[in-house]
Amino acid sequence: MFVDNNILSSLTKIERLELLPALFDQVGTVPSVLDELHRDEVAGYQFVERIDAVKSYRGGWLQVYSLREAEVQFADEIVDASLSFTDAECIAVATTREERLLTDDGHAAEMASQRDVEVWDLKLLLEAALVKGHIETESELKTVIDALRERDGCRFSNQDRTDLFDHL
Question: How high is the pLDDT of residue 39?
């Protein structure tokens, strides 16, 4: 499973980054995602240090995959005015390696879906956490949803909230 920077940063901001390795056997990203996160760190976001700590080459669980030449070419082909090169790289890697992509970027999700990539958003991730028992109570789910809103500006529709709470 490949994860983009918005999901990594959202989970890190609410101190629930551990949901990724709890739900997936392998979690990876591309170097450009980390580059974007480090630009955030320069802008004053301290959460980036927590992501650095989980990189596989530092003994953590987050694999950082270098792009193959064909993946770089594919990313060059699909990048456009509304799709960043980082998102294009994530899509290219997920497509060529037949992996799931975890993103909350609607346009990137649509572009990936058009290439038959299975896409999960934050809601699906939380649903999986509920089903697998990594979020166990209504209070814990409410805390996660509230933290996402307060710390990351993430808003769930009433229907999405209802769907999530129905898993308890």
Answer: 83
Rounded Cα distance between 137 and 39, Å, is: 36
List, as one string, the DSSP characters of the chain: -EE-HHHHHHHHHTT-TTHHHHH-S-EEE-HHHHHHHHHHHHTT-TTHHHHHTTBGGGTSSEEEPPPPHHHHHHHHHH-BTTB-HHHHHHHHHHHHTT--EE---HHHHHHHHTTT--EE-HHHHHHHHHHTTSS-SHHHHHHHHHHHHHHH-----HHHHHHHHTT-
Residue in 69, 70, 66, 92 with CA at minimum distance from that of residue 79: 92
pTM, full prediction: 0.93
